[in-house]
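User: structure tokens for this one?
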Amino acid sequence: MSASPIGESPNRVGGTDRVTGAQAYLADLHVPGALHAKLVHLDCARARIVGIDGSAALALPGVHLVMTAADLPDPMPRYGPQVADRPVLAVRETKYHGDPVAIVVADTRELAERAAALVKVDYEELPAVFTIAGALAPGAPLVQDPALRGDTGLALGNVLTEHRVGWGDVEAEEAKAHLVVEGRYSFPIVTQFAIEPHAFIAAPDGDGVVVWSTIQHPNWLQKQIAGLVGLPLSKVRVHAPDPGGGFGGKQHAKHEPAVVFAALRLGRPVRLVLTLEESFQAVRRAACASHVRTGFDAAGHILFQDIEADYLIGAYVDIADRVVAKGSYPAAGPYNIPAVRILARSVLSHTVPSTAFRGFGNPQINWAVESNLDQGALELGMDRLAIRLLNLARKGDAFIPFDTPADGDWEQTVRRAASEGGWDAPLPPGRGRGIALGIKSGPTTGLSYAIVRLLGDGSAVVYAGTSDMGQGARTVFSQIVAQELGAPMDWVTVIMGDTAIVPYDQQTSASRSTVLMGNAVLMACRDVQAKLGALAARIAGVEVGDVIVDAGVVRVADGRVLTIREVLASGLGRLGGEITGLGEVRKDADPSHPLSGAPAFFEFNCTVIEADVDRETGDVTLVKHITVSDVGKALNPLHVRMQDEGAAIMGLGHTLMEHCIYDERGRMRNLGAIDYRIPTIMDLPVELRSEIIENEDGPGPYGSKGMSEGALLCVASAVGAAVRDAIGVPIRDLPLTPERVWRALQEDGAR
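Assistant:
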């Protein structure tokens, strides 16, 4: 490693434990005296609860509690990050298959499962809606009680919210258009499939409560629990061990409230670990149906985009309405377009509540808009790369007129991807090539605090509320501290995941960790440096302004150069001690902005795909997958490449195979790892390569930008374009399974 750790790729902090299995995840933790819980739900999506009889379960020795809505406060406590619409347990009516009606607590997990099966629920199955079309149909059953919806003007239907963004005059531009291309596209329900299941433990803690959770946002959970049980924040402690994958699905509370109420009722710790199948019934990505109209002039300039998108968000809001708003906001893409009109609707349904998922609503709409742009290029007889370069926003362009200008030289990214992908090289028969661009708004608000303690021997401890879900936050923060304070990386310890110890962090999402918390860590280091400077000035007998502390070295105006350890040894003396720094990064909300704040940065990606299609079977083989992202500065290049490769592979899931299948009663029929397919080593591209563009033009430490979602945004669009290039037939519905591709070929042949 060079003298500066920034821009290098040191071994990941905790990486060895992750790959050897030594790391303790939440399900590996055991709290003394903990009881075990199991949820009870009905064998259908929507039903009126007539009665619940837990007597047979309670008759089993070792069963301590069968808790139902009747055992909870009236009115039922409800929670949610956007709307407090989710009950702790289903009250009067279930809303989706998996909506818990009771929680059973027993001495062992096996006994809890056995007892849960004995709970008798008398219920009346009710009509339900599981699709966008069904939810929007006249007279469709209402998913939520209008009394809980408030005076929104939409409470008598299943549209929760309408989000409208736009500029210019679409009709005027359409009148000038040489070509208008129109298409309807669909994106399926998929699940996050984190290998670590969701798990929760709660225990009374004196006059408070302590919670362990696989949560991404421990401070948010702390606030939710405090509000539900009527405690001050100081009496609610949340432990959030590093989760084994989150991908957005672990952002917000799921079943923690039920476990907390059970633990407080019994006065003992209660533990609930979901199975993989139950995790499928806890989180998912929203499906989307889009209608896109794109107008062009004869030269290929985009004159307007008219976009409508309906997202199927499920039974409770969770964070899904924010997903719809933010995901659809940059729907027109990274292009300079005179007129844009976007209408995105959050549609309620009797399905698992959708939540955040890597990409945060953008992949759904990117699939439609980039595919429509390809159709326009083909009808105009233009090269698909050329039409994108013609319309692409250049750095500083206000491509969204009232927002952050383009913050990167995005043409570099596109040209690099095209070059690496061999865009102009000839292809053999049956093979096609596709290109797509993806953009996502970064965090629009934020608040992160960090504390850095420089100890007497020059080692350091960092306290940060960020969750390290595998993105390498611990490593990057260690690199920043090593750079600023001169400590070897293995002398830096990063403490996370305990609200009683680490300072507040708003959330771990929106690719914000390096930019927002990274800046807070950097500021804390600078605070330490300022105090070191004052200490060194006293030792050297000079003014504070005559001392410069930078990159682990103390320089005095008279030419003396001291190490930080020398200053500490002399300045702290026999009493010892430490120097503590505090960093705070705040990005306040802007009520006038459609997203309550302009994005701190944009994630921008270009993906090029080369695909081979077997016309006899419809099977798609990816020969080449090139993904290039604009990252500002790669603080740890290996991390950046791994994150992009992981995102690219994840994107292949919803593109080629992943989709949740529901029956007529709203039950998911492909729960679990056997029937729900995700990409394996057998499905990977023959060649997968990630490249990065660095111009040090980001708002994060040393010019960095957030990344790790960009490489997923346009995977489907690029693969779909490559498949169409190979077979000459457009497919507008995902996933591109062999059957779907084969049927498209048969229908085309019949025509």
